[in-house]
Amino acid sequence: xxxxxxxxxxxxxxxxxxxxxxxxxxxxxxxxxxxxxxxxxxxxxxxxxxxxxxxxxxxxxxxxxxxxxxxxxxxxxxxxxxxxxxxxxxxxxxxxxxxxxxxxxxxxxxxxxxxxxxxxxxxxxxxxxxxxxxxxxxxxxxxxxxxxxxxxxxxxxxxxxxxxxxxxxxxxxxxxxxxxxxxxxxxxxxxxxxxxxxxxxxxxxxxxxxxxxxxxxxxxxxxxxxxxxxxxxxxxxxxxxxxxxxxxxxxxxxxxxxxxxxxxxxxxxxxxxxxxxxxxxxxxxxxxxxxxxxxxxxxxxxxxxxxxxxxxxxxxxxxxxxxxxxxxxxxxxxxxxxxxxxxxxxxxxxxxxxxxxxxxxxxxxxxxxxxxxxxxxxxxxxxxxxxxxxxxxxxxxxxxxxxxxxxxxxxxxxxxxxxxxxxxxxxxxxxxxxxxxxxxxxxxxxxxxxxxxxxxxxxxxxxxxxxxxxxxxxxxxxxxxxxxxxxxxxxxxxxxxxxxxxxxxxxxxxxxxxxxxxxxxxxxxxxxxxxxxxxxxxxxxxxxxxxxxxxxxxxxxxxxxxxxxxxxxxxxxxxxxxxxxxxxxxxxxxxxxxxxxxxxxxxxxxxxxxxxxxxxxxxxxxxxxxxxxxxxxxxxxxxxxxxxxxxxxxxxxxxxxxxxxxxxxxxxxxxxxxxxxxxxxxxxxxxxxxxxxxxxxxxxxxxxxxxxxxxxxxxxxxxxxxxxxxxxxxxxxxxxxxxxxxxxxxxxxxxxxxxxxxxxxxxxxxxxxxxxxxxxxx
Length: 778
Prior knowledge:
Blueprint: H1 5-11, E1 13-19, E2 27-33, H2 37-42, H3 73-86, H4 90-93, H5 103-120, H6 137-151, H7 155-167, H8 173-193, H9 195-198, H10 210-221, H11 227-248, H12 259-264, H13 269-275, H14 293-296, H15 313-317, H16 321-340, H17 378-384, H18 391-414, H19 416-423, H20 439-444, H21 452-470, H22 482-506, H23 513-523, H24 528-558, H25 562-590, H26 592-596, H27 607-621, H28 623-626, H29 635-645, H30 647-655, H31 662-669, H32 672-679, H33 690-707, H34 709-737, H35 750-772
Antiparallel strand pairs: 1-2
């Protein structure tokens, strides 16, 4: 293994080579800061997870691994089993906060179960085919990819749910499953073309996967999950399992605790809107603290590297965490000021909701303006009036579109050399990649690749299946014409280049769903259902492309053969499509009224599927009346073009400043697309967890990482996996046992809920009185 001097100079990182205890032929490059080298040498076991300050440094690590089996009985059994469990993510689509089964939990539990299977099962005779040796890294990676794929709820399922809830259009089960699966496969076909640009090169390092790679390596190369750590995992798993039911069921006020709201006692709307966040669409949660890990884990506070988040060093290192925080704090200011300034004339509407409203603030009567053949009834508009968005939802859509426009300019201004290197001479279409000097990629060349024609065939077949499903709607309804499917699919392929590059280099995803819906509104005027379906081929396809690209990179890091990565991804998608649809039908059938309610409850909310319905009516049926220039919401589509110019002043300052100055570095690493995206991040569902995320993130990624590095290296990621797993298992049980996912909702005794509120209120007043020096309460 060799490291170029330039790499050491540029990163300030030095290599520490250690021989693998598991494979004598392996050499692992571990990168730590210079001042920690002595500590690592003295206690290697405590640093089993390498400290990597710049995530792309992981690309310098090269492992020479033997040809370990990846497709075994263990990997197939655990892969399908965990994929089925991960598919319960469908529940979160209809909860107050969207989530997914933690990839970290799947990783740890797969290791525990895989190791147990190796220990328990015989390995002699014919048994050796079922138990070929110790549970290895490649089996493990295949399971992780398959289960995480199944946990990614397809947009197709959400669209099918919206058709069922708001249009009473119920697709045949086979048509629905094929529709979901085909739209995912379209993304995989596009990903095959983009591998040269977004998988093979070193700059495409996918920061979100660095902790996954490090943990996988440490488990199999260093035996990091010993008996003591496994015991720690199960203790934490059990503790959060028995705790999480308390804020979820008997004491829901513990979901989000706002001292300011409780002191105000509901007297002022402004206080609830700004500081509330415990119920669906209650508020944006400023300074609200959550005790529910199900909510807290949405910010992945134990996983995302903090890198002293609030200091100047973030900008010197190019951390994308600072733009995330800057955008969210700006969101508190922008959303509140716009609402109370009556921007978009939404002051008399609810503070937060993704539904549509009429002029009097009631839920918009969409059935009155839609004909039986699902087109606009123009004569009814004069009576019913035009629909309206809440101010916060309109601002959010505008910010998402600003972010998309800024992302395009940001890519060309700051990353033109990479674009030119990748696309010059159309090299990305060629099979040979000799000009890619990435150590991981060179190691992967010993494995046969998936041929380009396979990706092309998958792409074409998926389009054909998608078109066929669209023409097989209930009652002969054509859900979307063939030419439109082809157009949006190719548009998605082009925009995937921009989105993929941002994800590959920063770890953040830029949403294009509102841009797609606006485009569809002008292509299909007066037709709500094609506008809704445009999300499948314009939005969902691009994100499925990113999922496969990330998994291909994970396979490249762990040396999983590309064909195995591809096969496990497809298998996970198929399992996910079947289970997603099955669970969706069960939940929608048993909770229709709540899911159609604009506000929702603490338990169930239809805010995700309501977005698609709102877009189908506002943009699909009434796009020209609402979004054309000079109309009430014309700024929302125009924001895409405005966003193109936002990065220019910052780039000009950088261009004409001293390259070594702090100002120039600040301009270069101020990631405007991320800041703009997170300004519009908050006006959805529950927001009581973000302060807790920040506190836990600082404690874990700064205090523990710097003050207790040995404990951090041993237990931090195991702690995160145990908390995620225990909380997700109990929520799954509660959803079907008492929350009504199976049709039998059991409310907790009302007197206990009232007592819990009184207890929390009295406790809050006591604390406030002590802080203020007041001896008595009235």
